[in-house]
Write a structure and sequence with these properties.
The complex is a heterodimer of chains A (about 450) and B (about 240).
Chain A (H helix, E strand, L loop, with lengths): L17 E4 L6 H12 L4 E2 L15 E4 L6 E5 L4 E5 L4 H8 L4 E2 L11 H6 L7 H4 L6 E8 L3 E6 L4 H7 L8 E8 L1 E2 L4 E9 L2 H11 L5 E6 L11 E8 L13 E2 L11 H14 L5 E6 H5 L5 E2 L10 E9 L3 H15 L6 E6 L14 E9 L2 H17 L3 E2 L9 H7 L3 H6 L8 H7 L2
Parallel strand pairs in A: 1-3, 2-3, 14-16
Antiparallel strand pairs in A: 4-5, 5-9, 6-10, 7-8, 7-9, 11-13, 11-15, 12-13, 12-18, 17-19, 17-20, 18-19
Chain B lengths: L1 E6 L4 H10 L4 E7 L2 H13 L3 E6 L8 H12 L4 E4 L7 H6 L1 H29 L3 E5 L12 H22 L4 E7 L1 E2 L14 E2 L1 H13 L4 E4 L3 H10 L2 H4 L5
Parallel strand pairs in B: 1-2, 1-4, 2-3, 4-5, 5-6, 6-9, 7-8
The chains are: A alpha+beta (about 450), B alpha/beta (about 240).
Chain lengths: ~450, ~240
Amino acid sequence: MKGKEILPWGNYPYHPQRAHAVDWRDEIASRLAQVADQCGSTLPFGAGRSYGDSCLAASDNLLALRGLKRIIAADWASGVLRAEAGITLEEILQVAVPRGWFLPVTPGTKYATLGGAIANDVHGKNHHRRGTFGAHISRFGLLRSDRGLLECSAHENADLFTATIGGLGLTGIVVWVEFSLLPIRSSRIASTSMRFNNLDEFFALSNEYDHEREYTVAWIDCLARGKALGRGIYTVGEHAADGILASAAKKKITVPVMPPFSLVNGPSLKAFNILYYRRQPATPVNALVDYDSFFYPLDGILQWNRIYGPRGFQQYQCVVPETDARAVVRALLEIIGRSNSGSFLAVLKRCGAQRSPGLLSFPLAGVSLALDFPQRDAGNAKLFEQMDRIIRDANGRLYPAKDAHMSGADFRRFYPNWQQVDALRDPSLLSRFWQRVTQV
Amino acid sequence: MKRVLIVGATSAMAEACARHWAGPDSRFFLVARNGVHLGQIADDLAARGAVAESYVMDANIIDDHAAMLDAAQKMLGAIDIVLIAHGTLADQQACQKSVAQTLAEINTNGVSTVALLTLIANVMERQGRGSIVVISSVAGDRGRPSNYVYGAAKAMVSAFCDGMRARLFKVGVHLVTVKPGFVDTPMTAGLNLPKLLTASTAQVARDIDSAIARKKEVLYTAWYWRWIMLIIKMIPAPIFKKLSL
């Protein structure tokens, strides 16, 4: 029997990685030197939740840091936490929630690590209020192969501070992170979900509620066409004002094996999207739900990426500026609808104007759209090419954490600060993504 | 209130157990060779509300055991749980070429545990309550060509525990022998373990916790190792010797 191959979350592209594990802070430097020496270069790796090749080492030899999951110091009075970078968001929530604290910003999975949250400068359903995760980091320890352990903050090694937030793990090994938690009085979320019949209705709802609600997000039926184009369900939420503080301990189910082919195909997609839309009543539904089901519905199904079969899938996430957002999202949905591809969970989210300290941070004021596509080599390439052109013309950008297709020219246009990050890149670290978008 | 003594506290399984038990009403006395790593674990437990003290000791220096145990009692008072988790994964090939290395592995994984338990049992016996958790291994169930040195040491530990359990039961002290199968730890990092049969340390910690609560005698973790080992134990010796397990 073979051990599990290390692949990115999307199981695409297929470049199996070899892991070199480190479990103690004082052993990172020697391990980094050893692996870099042996393999040319390496890349810090946490939980492997990046979808594409941004978490794959150019040398296919990773420095696996998941064992670094200790809390270093916690001030439960002020909600400042300092922890090792390999700790997952779930492990943080388990300790923080019972004490009345929550993550200031959380992405759609709690299985990502703190190091991954920095490297991708993750955002969540409250981006319009609190910006990205990077905005809540006060300092971190960065181990460089050429300069040793450095403390970075807005005032100390500020160049590395801004280059590392969203820096895709290339500027050094993030050893520990100190950040501020968000106070809560209940572990539950008071949520309201509302059905909308088309894209205009989404924008109307978003305009009405986004400014007054902590969390907002929308699911859209990416296969609906014509008058129903862009229909979906808009969900808002707030931390409940009072109630119990309990960390989630729900039973999970697992997709036990990888089916020989993708279960996501034309008929299953169509059926799911119609049913999911119809299940939501036409009138708004209020509910008090635990944070797990509000933030992490997909985490309830472990290894859900397997449903796409051995060829894997690609996620396409873009953000476009507010100005033309409506027309751009419409154009994208039209193209996707015609392609008959797309995903169960297409997510639309209004992002705010908060600026991240990070040089390569993804979000910008506007609208973000994310969808999964089963890997079909020719089909996806053609579809993505059309979509990329629209994003380019709208001055939007694509999200490296999800990416496995962006052209180098597009990347350099989307992220004009890339050269600053490249100049600060640790000479021992290189990802397949970075190689693809900067060196080709 | 949970008062816990852990020997081999920097092992991944022990660390997972400590994290599982950590809370505002827990006290830990942590023993291991590496003081820096002990300090990092103590900080983690403190952040979770526990009180933790580190004590640097090499379990192979048998003469140091008594002083350690005195210090542990001083810090903890009564002891609710003792966890013995130190060990090394022997390099079987190297052991076959070296008497010194073979005996070193037997000492680390077998003799030192027997020595520790001898002292600890007397403390717990006087106390008349509490649980002793000893990490043995499925490898001790039957010597296999791929790691019989390690297996022999663990077989000694398992047999020693069987007897000691029956002795301590009569005075109200519980002893559970833990036999982990494949566990995803730094000790096994170099091995290409089959994913389906490999437990996480968090899973092992949950299993140990429930084994203490249910006063289980022998814990296989993950559970299916009981059945895997049953089959391995049942293979007749004339066939077993032809296999390369």
